[in-house]
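Annotated sample (chain length 366).
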Amino acid sequence: MFLSLNMSRLSNGKLDLVLSTKTEESENPSEIRKDYRSGYLVVISRLRSKQYISSITTEEYKNNSTAFDKSLDLESRLAKCAFEPGKEDLNKEVVRVGSPWEIRVIENKFPSLSKNANVSRWRGENGLFELIGGHGYNEVVIDSPNHEELLEGMNTNQLTQWLDMLIDREEELYKRDNVKYVQIYRNYGIKAGASIEHPHTQVMAWPILAGTVAKEVKSSKRYLKKHSTCLYEDALKKEVENGRILTENSTFIAVAPFASRFAGESMILPKRHLSYLGGTEKGERKDLVEILKSVLKTNKELFGDISYNFSFHDYKYNPDLHMHLEIYPRILNLAGVELGQNIFVNTMSPEDYAKEFRAKQECSKR
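Output written by the structure step:
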C-alpha cells in the first residue's frame, strides 16, 4: 500500500497528518528508507548521485592526512572554488549579510533532501519495506568571503554574526510546511565528508525527527519522568567530578563525554537548561562561540589540521532535551567494527584527552 502523507503546521507547532492510499511507489528525488534489518534510516538521494560524485576528483583523496589537499597553490584553489566573491551567480542565494557580503547563505547544489519531494509514506507487504518521501531543505552558510579563514581564527564579533545567521536560518526553516526538525552541522576536511575547502556550515530541514536527536529526546523524557531531573545536567556533574572537563566560561562548559566514540570527541553544553539554540540570549551566544573557538583551537594544537565534524543537538518542540554541540575529530577512518556493529573503538580515552587538552591550554597561557 502507498500512503500519501499531507502535513500542515498547527498553531502549537505540531503537525497535522492526513493519509491517503495509492497503488504504487513514489518517484521522489529523495527518500528516507528504513532498514528492516536494524531499524536504521537511510537517505536515498538521487540528486547527489552521478553529478556529486563526478564533482570530486580522485586527486583530492590521495593525501588525506590533513584536512584538505593543499598541493595546489592558493591561486589555483581559488580559481576552482565556487564560493569565492565574484562568483555569486554560480549558486542560488537565500540571504547575505553586508555589502560586500560578510556571510552568504545559498541553496545546496547537491541536496540530500529535496524541496520538490512529496511527503509520503510507503509500506510494503508484511511491513518489510518502509519509506517516507525525502522532503526537506539544504542550505549552505558560507562563513566568510576569505577562502582560508577558519572558525578558530575569527574574532568574537564575526563568530557571533555567524551564529546569529545559523539561528535565523534554523528559525525560518522551522516555519515551513512539512518541516519537523532542523539540523545545523559542519564538515571540515576530506575525512569529514567536505568536498569544498572554503569555510562553510550547513543547515538541513527534515520531514521527521529521527536518528540520534530523536533517541536523545526519548532518553531525556524517560530520565525526567523517573528522576525528576535533567539527564544532561546530572551527567555533567559526574563528568566534571571524574576529570572529563575541558574548559568553561560563565554560561557554557565543554567536556569529553564518558562514552566518547571518537578520539578527542567533545560536547559543549549551556549551564542553564535550554532545549533550542534559538532560546539563547545575547551573552550566551558570545560565550558559546568563544568556547567553540577555544575547543577547535586547542584540538588543532593537539592533533594538527585534521578533519572534523560538529553537529548541534537541539530541538524546538520538546523542552526536555538539554541542547548541546558535539565535535568529532576524524583522526582515524571508520573500520569493520564500527560499520559492521555500530560499536565504536576509541583509541584515546576521554580522561586522557581531557588531561592533555587542559595541559595544552595551560601551556598556551604561559
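Annotation: The first helix runs from residue 50 to 54.
Annotation: The chain has two domains: 2-54+80-208, 212-365.
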